[in-house]
Amino acid sequence: MNENSTILRMRDITKTFGAVRALDGVSISVTRGSVHAICGENGAGKSTLMKVLSGVYPHGSFDGTIEFEDKEVEYRSINDSERDGIVIIHQELALSPYLSIAENIFLGNENAKRGVINWHETNLEAVKLLARVGLQENPATPVLELGVGKQQLVEIAKALSKRVKLLILDEPTAALNDEDSAHLLDLLRHLRDQGITSIIISHKLKEIRKIADTVTIIRDGATIESFEMTEPDATEARIIRSMVGRPLDNLFPPREPDIGEEYFRVENWNAYHPVDTARKVVDDASFSVRAGEIVGFAGLMGAGRTELAMSIFGRSYGRNISGKVFKQGKEIQTRTVEEAIRNGIAYATEDRKKYGLNLIGDITVNVSAAALGRLARLGVIDRNREYVTADRYREQMNIKAPSVASVVGKLSGGNQQKVVLSKWMFTGPDVLILDEPTRGIDVGAKYEIYGIINQLAAAGKAVIVISSELPELLGLADRIYTISQGRISGEVTRADATQELLMHYMTADKD
Ligand SMILES: Nc1ncnc2c1ncn2[C@@H]1O[C@H](COP(=O)(O)OP(=O)(O)OP(=O)(O)O)[C@@H](O)[C@H]1O
Ligand SMILES: [Mg+2]
């Protein structure tokens, strides 16, 4: 086999959904045994291109040709492409939470023996596959007990069981912490050494620098350029320029903080695990936010940041919750989501599929969902105002959709995230808690979202940003709390904050 042969050629791919032209003549060519990155703004067409390749959109539903291993292919389903060794791991993971690791790996797998499944053999095989991805778990463990990082590895183990030749990963590290991401990138390198080609879609340009051999940039459904990462001018700035269509000098908009009195305070907050009720997940947390201040929450995955925020926001997480919440010095109650919203608190969730959105509803319905009271006159919802409001957010947040009547489930991942943010902005909160607000968002759109966060602060609101991206917190926040094992383990002002110092507090052990 020729070392540097081309394993995949997609030529002039055009794909439309009604009036939406998602892909407009995209071409891409991937070298065997390489890691090939695809970059582009939210809605550029990256996921669609990979769905065309893998047969999610069958032959005949798009224009253009696909050549895999030097032969033209016409996949009619995912099974067709998997038979050739093309396996796609989607933006949203697709494992069955209640089934075991082994079951997830082998169920519905064409390579398993038809009919009866020999579970003894299957478990042995699973252990071998798990070893290949560096996962030491019992194959009988239900997937729901694994964190996202490990679930991702199970997906890859499943791909390996299908004798994958071309592995496609759509934003695999979006939900992973640094450690899990590094592990995953190592694994891709390792697979590359075994001759497995990968295509990776990611908005994390640092990661692309580290892992990719080649990068292809698409914008508005068309290929802008492809280049080798070994070229001297293969820089992040070049990728950004090609993605956005213009250079982006600053990743954060300028801001003059205007910080007032203490506005929001939480005292001695505790919460226990909803199922394992003896386990304390939030441990005596106290913190405050001043008017006009942007406060960051840093912590490792599982440190309890989301649990802290959700238990405050209408007790939507946890049991036996105790503690006090104050707004402008007055104690307020946040016992239900409605009560929290009424008291001016909003929490924009990191998990847009589970809690954030109605995927079969349109943009209008989603934006207004949490604040219908603001649109009602004498109990009747003013549909015209609802429409106008949603349209204003579409423009402000630059949501890529033909109109606000577009169904949210059909928007690209990043654009769905923008709808979640719009929805919570529209409740007109005084205290806004944003949980991973830029996950899956492209660099240009991040800048816009930071601008909106700055505006909220400038209007005297209290803003809390939970983020796993330390550079994001360093660029955005006036002050950062670190959380470790459910406790507030440190507090650092913007002037003193460095990644090293934050990491030090984030990994602080109890006692
Ligand atoms: N099933 C569908 N019906 C209608 N429009 C769609 C459908 N799937 C995708 N689109 C549209 O096609 C365009 C490209 O979407 P795609 O999901 O490929 O973007 P992406 O590059 O993966 O973006 P992101 O970085 O946000 O994930 C978007 O405008 C999207 O709204
Ligand atoms: Mg996508």
Give the topology, please.
Elements: E1 6-17, E2 20-31, E3 35-39, H1 46-53, E4 63-68, E5 71-72, H2 78-83, E6 86-89, H3 101-106, H4 119-132, H5 148-161, E7 166-170, H6 178-193, E8 197-201, H7 205-211, E9 214-219, E10 222-228, H8 236-244, E11 262-272, E12 280-290, E13 294-299, H9 305-312, E14 319-327, E15 330-332, H10 337-342, E16 345-348, H11 352-356, H12 363-368, H13 372-375, E17 376-377, E18 380-381, H14 383-397, H15 413-425, E19 431-435, H16 443-458, E20 462-466, H17 470-476, E21 479-484, E22 487-493, H18 499-506
Parallel strand pairs: 3-8, 3-9, 6-7, 7-8, 13-20, 13-21, 16-19, 19-20
Antiparallel strand pairs: 1-2, 1-4, 4-5, 9-10, 11-12, 11-14, 14-15, 17-18, 21-22
Helix pairs in contact: 4-5
The structure holds adenosine-5'-triphosphate and magnesium ion.
Structure write-up:
The chain is of the alpha/beta class and 511 residues long. It has three domains: 6-244, P-loop containing nucleotide triphosphate hydrolases (Rossmann fold, 3-Layer(aba) Sandwich), CATH 3.40.50; 261-344 and 429-511, Rossmann fold, CATH 3.40.50; 357-427, no CATH class. Helices cover 33% and strands 26% of the residues. The protein has 18 helices and 22 strands. It has a six-stranded mixed sheet with strand order 6-7-8-3-9-10, with helices on both faces. A hairpin with a 7-residue loop joins strand 11 (262-272) and strand 12. Helix 4 (119-132) crosses helix 5 (148-161). The N and C termini lie far apart (58 Å). The model has no long low-confidence stretch (mean pLDDT 90). The structure holds adenosine-5'-triphosphate and magnesium ion (MG). Magnesium ion (MG) binds at residues 46-47, 91, 170, 412-413.
